Amino acid sequence: TISAAFREHLRRLGLQDFPCGLGSWNKSRFDARTSPRGGRLALGADPAGQEEALPLGEESPEALMELLSDQHSPWALPPDCSPQDQHLREMAVLTPELVHGSNVFQVFRSLRIIGKGVEEVDEGLLQLQQLEELILSTNQISRMTSANLPRMLKVLELCGNAVADLQDLCAQPPPELQHLGLGYNRLCSPLQDKYLTVDFWPNLVSLDLGFNNFTDLLGLVSQLSSLQKLRILVLQGNPLALIPTYRGFLVDSLPKLSVLDDIHIGPDERHQFHSLARQPELIRSEARVVVSIGEIKGVPDPSTHQQLEVGSEAPVIAYSYCVTYEF
C-alpha cells in the first residue's frame, strides 16, 4: 500500500535520528526546564556577541547541518532524493518539533514513491492533508479510489502503472487537479473517453495519455474539447497517433492547446491546419507502418555452416525462421 511505502520513506529520511530530531546531541536547545544556573546553556550569542559554550556531548546546529550537506557524510541523503526530502531533514535539525510524530503529515507538500511496487492507494494517504503533488510512477497500480486522495492535490502522476479503468478515479476526483499523468498504462477507447471531460477535471491544464491504447480520435477529441483550461496534451504512442491527419486535426480541434506531444503549436501550424476539424471524413481508421530490421542477434546463420562433402551420408539440417510483430 501507499501507506507502507510512505512509512518506509520516512524511515529512510531518518527525521527522528541523529543528526536530526531530538536527542542528547541538542537537548539543551529544546529543554524548557534548562536554566543557565544549572550549567546547561541554551545555544545563542551573549550580549558581547560571543557564542556561548555548548554542553558536553552536544553539537551546534551548524555542525549538524554540515553532516546533512556534505556528500561524503554517512548521514547525507542519496542523490535520487528530492529537494523536499533535503528540506525536511534540515527542518528536523533546526525545528524538530515541526516534524515530530503526526506533525510531519502537515509538512508534506510533495510525495514521490517511484518504483516501489505499490499496488493500492489506501485511505492512509488522507493524513497528508496539505499534499499538492503525488508522483507514483512505475508501480503496480491498476485501480485508484479517488476518495483516498487529498483534496488539495494539484499534480497526480501515474505513469508506468497498470491502470485500465478510470471509473474509481473519477468518482470523487480532487477538484483542483491541474496535471494528470496516465502515460504507459492500459487505457483504451472508447470506454475511457467519457472520463476525460470537464465534469471530472474542471481545472486540468496538462494531460498525459501517451502510450496507451486509444484508437478513436474523433470520440476522444469530442470529450477533450470540454476541457477549457487544457494547454498541454500528450497522445503519442497510441494507435490513433498513426492516423495521417492526427496532429492537424487535434491542433484545429483544440484551439487553446499550446503544446501537443512535447512540440509547441505555433501560429503557422494553426494557419496550416485551419478548418481541418470540419472535415472528419479525412480521418481514416487505417495507417501504414514501415518496419526496418537493422540487425538480429542470437539466431544461427545457415550460410556459415560448412558445406557437406560430396557423397556424405550425414543428415541434412534445414533452418527456417518466422518473425512476428504484434500491433
Labels describing this entry:
single chain; alpha/beta; eight-stranded mixed sheet; 8 strands; 18% helix; repeat
Plain-language structure description:
- By secondary structure, this protein is of the alpha/beta class.
- The protein is built from seven helices and eight strands, in the order H-H-H-H-E-E-E-E-E-H-E-H-E-E-H.
- The chain has helices at residues 2-13, 27-30, 61-69, 83-94, 217-224, 246-253, 267-272, and strands at 110-112, 133-135, 155-157, 179-181, 206-208, 232-234, 259-260, 263-264.
- Strands 1-2-3-4-5-6-7-8 form an eight-stranded mixed sheet, covered by helices on one side.
- Helix 6 links the parallel strand 6 and strand 7 (259-260).
- Helix 3 (61-69) runs antiparallel to helix 4.
